[in-house]
Amino acid sequence: MKKYWWVIVLLGLLVVAGGLIYFVTTDFEEDIQLLEEMEEVYALMDEHNTDELNQKLDTIISTGDYAVVEKAAKNYTRDLYNVVTNISNELANDRIIEVIL
C-alpha cells in the first residue's frame, strides 16, 4: 500500500511541476512577443509611417494581464507620437517665426 502512495505523490508532484513550467514559459513568451511588438511600433514611429503605425497600435496580440499592459503602452505611445508630431508641425510653421520676431 505504501508503494502506491509514493507513486501517487510523485505523479502529483510531476503534474504540479509541469503546470508551473508551462505557466512560466507562457509568461516569458508573451513578454518577448510584447517587447518585439513594441520594437516594431517604435520603428514605425521613426519611419513616420502613420497608416501602419495606427494599424499596429490598434492590434492587441497579448492575452490576460499582458493585454492590459499592452493597451496601456500602445495608448501612451499613440499619445506621445501625436504630441511630438503636433509640436514638429508647429515648429515647422512659418507663422511661429513671425510671431517670435
Q: What would a concise description of this structure say?
A:
This protein is mostly helical and 101 residues long.
- Helix vs. strand class: mainly alpha
The unreliable regions are: none
How far do the termini sit from each other? 95 Å
Main sheet summary: none
What amount of the residues lies in strands?
A: under 5%
Number of strands: 0
Q: What is the typical, i.e. mean, pLDDT?
A: 86
List the helices and strands and how they pair.
Layout: H1 2-47, H2 50-58, H3 65-92, H4 94-100
Helix pairs in contact: 1-2, 1-3
Explain this structure to me?
- By secondary structure, this protein is mainly α.
- The chain has one domain (30-100).
- The protein is built from four helices and no strands.
- Helix 1 (2-47) packs antiparallel against helix 2 (50-58) and helix 1 packs parallel to helix 3 (65-92).
- The longest helix is centred in the first third of the chain and has 46 residues, at 2-47.
- The mean pLDDT is 86.
